[in-house]
Design a protein that fits this description.
Blueprint (H helix, E strand, L loop, with lengths): L23 H14 L12 E5 L1 H18 L3 E5 L10 H6 L6 E5 H9 L9 E6 L1 E6 L10 H10 L3 E4 L2 H14 L2 H4 L3 E4 L4 H6 L5 E5 H4 L5 E6 L8 E7 L6 H11 L5 H5 L4 E2 L4
Parallel strand pairs: 1-2, 1-3, 6-7, 6-8
Antiparallel strand pairs: 3-10, 4-10, 4-11, 5-8, 5-9
C-alpha cells in the first residue's frame, strides 16, 4: 500500500521556454505527466462518471494517480472506499451486494477472485497492480519496540498492552495464522482488537491501542503515528492488490482504460512512494 523509477519518459525540449527555466524536479514531473498521458486516450464520447471501489491497501497511490487520469481523459471518477473482505457495511463485498454503482474494483487478489466466482467481476479482467507488505506502528513519540526478528516480534506482542489490527487482508492473516505461527495466540489474541471501517493508524494515533498492524501503505499516510517497520521476512505476508471490471459496469471500456493507466510503468514512482511495490516494474 501502500501492491508502486520512470521507465518511459518523453523529451521536454519541444517546449518553447528555455531549458534553464526548468528545475530537475519540474522536468521529471513533466516527463511523468507526459508518459502517463500516453497510456490513455480520450474515447470518442467521454461522458458519464467512472465508479471505482478500492480497498485501503491501494488508496494512497490511487488518490494521487486519479487526478491525472481525469485530466487526460476528461472523465470524472467517483470513488467508494472499503475493506477487501468482511461484512462491514462499507466493505467492497457489502457495497456490491447492495448493487452500488461500480465499474472498477481494486482489492486483495484472493477477494477479487472470490468476486469473480460470485459473478460480481468479469472473469479474465483481473490485473495485478501492486505487492503490499504488513507493518507496525505506535503512537507518535512513543517508544518504538523491536520487531526486527521473529523472537523480538514475539516479545513485543507479548509485552504490548493492546494491539489493533484491520478487518481486511492483513488482519485476517494476523488473527488466523500469524499468532498461531508464533505460538502466542492464547496470550495475545484477547488483548487484540479488530478494527472495522477505520484505519488502524487512526486508532493508534488517538491512543486507543498501543500497537497497530496493517498494510504499510495504509499506515504511512496517517498523522499522529510513527511507523516502526515491516514484519520480519520469515513471517511476512505479501498481498497482491488487483483491479477488475465489475460485471454491472455501464462503461467497461472506460473501466479497462483506467486499469491500464493505474498499471502503466509511468505510474510506478507514485505507487512506490506510498509503500507499495508496483507490479508493472517487475
Amino acid at each position: 500500500m501502500a501492491r508502486h523509477d520512470l521507465q518511459e519518459t518523453h523529451a521536454v525540449t519541444a517546449f518553447a521556454f528555455p531549458r534553464s527555466a526548468l528545475t530537475r524536479r519540474a522536468a521529471l514531473a513533466l516527463a511523468a505527466s507526459f508518459a502517463l498521458a500516453g497510456c490513455v486516450s480520450t474515447p470518442p464520447a467521454a461522458t458519464g462518471d467512472i465508479h471505482v471501489m478500492t480497498s485501503g491497501g491501494f488508496t494512497a497511490a490511487y488518490n494521487e494517480l486519479r487526478p491525472g487520469f481525469e485530466r487526460s481523459t476528461g472523465r470524472s471518477v467517483k470513488t467508494a472506499y472499503g475493506a477487501s473482505m468482511g461484512n462491514a457495511s462499507d466493505s467492497i463485498p457489502s457495497r456490491l451486494g447492495r448493487n452500488e454503482p461500480a465499474d472498477v474494483v481494486i482489492l486483495a487478489r484472493p477477494a477479487l477472485d472470490a468476486l469473480v466466482a460470485q459473478g460480481k467481476v468479469v472473469a479474465g479482467s483481473q490485473v495485478d497492480l501492486v505487492r503490499s507488505s504488513i507493518g507496525f506502528a505506535v503512537r507518535k513519540g512513543a517508544p518504538k519496540p523491536d520487531i526486527g526478528t521473529v523472537d523480538a516480534l514475539k516479545r513485543t506482542l507479548l509485552a504490548a498492552p493492546s494491539i489493533a489490527y484491520s478487518a481486511s487482508a492483513s488482519g485476517t492473516y494476523y488473527e488466523t495464522e500469524l499468532l498461531k505461527t508464533l505460538g502466542i495466540e492464547d496470550q495475545v489474541k484477547p488483548k487484540s482488537k479488530r478494527i472495522l471501517s477505520e484505519r488502524v493508524g487512526t486508532v493508534v494515533a488517538r491512543g486507543d491501542a498501543a500497537l497497530g498492524l496493517q498494510q504499510v501503505s495504509e499506515l504511512l499516510p496517517i498523522e499522529g503515528i510513527d511507523y516502526i517497520g515491516p514484519l520480519p521476512a520469515e513471517v511476512q505476508r505479501v498481498t497482491v492488490f488487483s483491479a477488475g471490471v465489475a460485471t454491472a459496469s455501464k462503461q467497461p471500456e472506460a473501466a479497462r482504460q483506467l486499469i491500464r493507466y493505474l498499471n502503466a510503468p509511468a505510474a510506478a514512482p507514485t505507487i512506490a512512494k506510498t509503500g507499495l511495490e508496483p507490479m508493472s516494474a517487475r
